[in-house]
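Subject: design request, 67 residues
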């Protein structure tokens, strides 16, 4: 199931409740990222890159596009 959530909801989540994946380019992630987020740039997104995710826990994927 896909559900949109707000930045505030992400920040209010208990540590470990959400698996947060930012798909921004590494330079953008280094400049500013969501606390507890893991960087997997979209260009590097493969099945192997995300096999560590727990399918029983919610996954939040974040991407920002200025366009």
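Subject: RE: design request

Done. Sequence follows.
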């Amino acid at each position: 199931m896909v559900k949109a959530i707000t930045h505030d909801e992400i920040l209010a989540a208990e540590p470990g409740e959400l698996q947060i994946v930012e798909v921004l380019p590494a330079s953008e992630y280094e400049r500013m990222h969501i606390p507890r987020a893991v960087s997997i740039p979209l260009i590097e997104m493969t099945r192997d890159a995300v096999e560590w995710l727990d399918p029983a826990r919610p996954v939040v994927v974040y991407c920002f596009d200025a366009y």
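Helices lie at 7-12, 26-31.
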